[in-house]
Amino acid sequence: LGNCQEFETKAYDYVSKSDAYKVLL
Amino acid sequence: QTELNQMVESMNLLLESLKNHESLNVDLYSGLLVDASIVKLPYLYFLPDVSKENEISLVPYIASQHSATWRISKYLNELLRPFVDKIVSTVFTKRELQSTTLFCAIKITNYHKLDIHKNMIDTVSYFLEENLITNKLEQVTIQNIKNLLHIFLYNNVFYYKDQIYTLTKGSPNTMPLADTLSNIYVFVWQKQILKQLQLNNEFFGRYKDQIFLTWSNGNEEQLGSFLQTIRDKSPNVQFQKLIASSVPFLNAFVQNQNGDLFSRIHRHPLIQGYSLPYEVGHAKLVHSDWLRSALIRAVCYCSSVEDFNLERIYLELTCLTNGYSL
Fold first, then answer.
1. Which of A5, B8, B24, B146 is the most buried (most CB within 10 A)?
2. Of B281, B230, B271, B16, which is closest to residue B104 (Cα–Cα)?
3. Are B243 and B223 in contact (CB under 8 A)?
């Protein structure tokens, strides 16, 4: 994967910035 | 767990009310009923997409096999899929390739999150109304398909990093129904492209999120501005485009050689060579089928015998490299 930290951060960004998901709880 | 139980309860209540209104028969009702004791909350995870140089992008997956919506999605998919496949496979084509004809490959980048649930339900309903002769598909009314679709779309949840999320657009890409729904949505969307292309006898083809079309009616700029009007009219469908006299499409390299169609196998330069697809279960059997279908694909794709032979050798070497005999 190269940089796991970068992967984690990107995953988090993906979820928080996506307009397809909304926090339910 | 409490929230999940409440959600399951509300889903079952809706199913029960459909049964009471005789929209669902008793057998189907009991088949779709959600069993709270075996339902698990799906989770979100990511796999890296390494197809772009110097950049890791992520492909999200939702592990959904034990989710509350699994049974409804399986039922709806088995109902819709054969009909949808039959309708969307219509191809309009007249072979009129000219030396100046441009090729265009389009990739829809948000295939699994195209629109909000309400619009998706409306689109499926419009699609069924337009293509069914009666208001029923296999004894199921369009209204009832809409009802079940509603229960499915609004109850897809998952967890990620200690929070529970709900999907506001699309559905988990790990469910076959997600593909079927996106296929319907894009089929309706692509009509505006087809309308223009049919006027000029162009070729149009689509596999899931990837489109290939020809453009003989003008230059690159005109095709670009035509696609921009499509984008402006329907901003929900996001896509990338590539216009040239030769383009890669799926695993093929397609070229216009002065009015003659030329094609050969295209391999993504960043994907590691000589590797077999990842398979679980009967890998030996699957890989043997893979070799057969890869050879058939090569026969179909390669315009020249030399290219086919190169591909055959490459495929054989791939099997040998991975420890299989021929």
1. B24
2. B230
3. yes
- For residues B214 and B102, the answer to whether their CB atoms sit within 8 Å is yes
pLDDT tens digits, residue range B77-86?
A: 999 999 999 9
The single residue listed with the structure tokens 């409440």 is B6
ipTM: 0.85
Beta bridge partners of B68: none
Gap between the Cα atoms of B236 and B168, Å rounded: 13
A4 and chain B: CB distance < 8 Å anywhere?
no
Cα(B26)–Cα(B30) distance, integer angstroms: 6
Residue owning tokens 């990511």: B46
Please report which helix (H) or strand (E) contains residue B106, including its range.
strand B102-108
Q: Are B262 and B255 in contact (CB under 8 A)?
A: yes
Type and span of the H or E element at B23:
none
- Contact yes or no for A1 and B48 at CB 8 A: yes
Q: Say if the Cβ atoms of B161 and A2 lie within 8 Å.
A: no
Q: Is A17 exposed, middle or buried (0-12, 13-18, 19+ CB in 10 A)?
A: exposed
Mind listing the pLDDT tens digit for each residue in B153-207?
Answer: 999 999 998 899 999 999 999 999 999 999 999 999 999 999 998 888 888 999 9
Cβ atoms of residues B71 and B32 within 8 Å = yes
Taking the CA of residue A22 and the nearest CA in chain B, the distance in Å comes to 5
Helix B176-189, helix B70-88: angle, nearest 10: 40
Nearest residue, CB atoms, B165 vs list A3, A19, A21: A21
Is A20 in CB contact (< 8 Å) with chain B? yes
